[in-house]
Amino acid sequence: MAKSKYEYVKTFEQNTSLLPNTYLVVRIDGRGFHHLSSKYNFGKPNDLRALDLMNASAVAVMKEIPDLVMAYGISDEFSFVFDRKSQLFDRRESKILTTIVSTFTSYYVHLWPAYFPSEPLSPPMPSFDGRVVMYPSKQNLRDYMSWRQVDCHINNLYNTTFWALVQKGQMGTTEAEEMLKGTLAADKNEILFSRFGINYNNEPEQFRKGSVIVRDFSELTISDAHLQKEAGTEISKTKKEKEKKARAKAEIKVEFVDIIGDAFWEARPWLLPDS
After folding, report:
1. Total-model pTM
2. Is the pLDDT of residue 234 over 90?
3. What are the percentages of helix, strand and coil residues in the chain, rounded to 5?
4. How many alpha carbons fall within 13 Å on the CB side of residue 109?
5. In angstroms, rounded to a whole number, what is the distance separating the alpha carbons of residues 198 and 146?
6. d(CA 142, CA 258)
7. Nearest of 121, 94, 87, 90 to residue 26 by alpha carbon
8. 236 falls in which pLDDT band (50, 70, 90)?
9. How far is the C-alpha of 76 from the C-alpha of 32, rounded, in Å?
10. pLDDT in tens, 22-46
């Protein structure tokens, strides 16, 4: 095929490849969601419809991209974790990032009527930005996931207390902010229980722990691959193909569980395999 004289402009393109053998995390965040939540009357401190819409959009992304092993979401944020060996788009950063952000956004808009049937969208439309971070070890990745879940707890405890003071305590927002300045978790729990009879530990786990989305593989598929890796034998090309198909067909589950402790990871060894 003949080349035009203008083709030289392609030399200005930059394709940044992400480091091999690292866990890739794409974290997306809603843009201008403070305004959006007010415009569509999101409930405070948590709107279950909005959270379920985020989860449904994340599940759709997981279904479209089998290289994703799990995702974790809080509020208007979601983190998507790629398999360490993923070669999607030859690990080109721009392709991976834009694919996740655009796929999530398109499903968020597409699924909106199912969760907000009486609140049709109008411009400015919901949108998300994102970033890609590389983590070289399993511990680094687990620490990242723990950081996000700790943030979920800190933010939700604050918001639950703040909105209890405003909605049930008849405080103004400025007064509530002043009251909570410098308070610790124990102080907020005491305010909730002594003033409003709210035991924070009884609040829905979805609000307190965030949403964890994982692929659920059959025991046969998991144990067979795990044993081969433990034995130090190379997995055959056929086996790799079967694993790829199993990943695509695996049930995707949304759970509201602790991911800071070891129990979650030990029960799902396929998420962070040793090799």
Report:
1. 0.89
2. no
3. 55, 15, 30
4. 13
5. 26
6. 12
7. 94
8. low
9. 10
10. 999 999 999 999 999 999 999 999 9
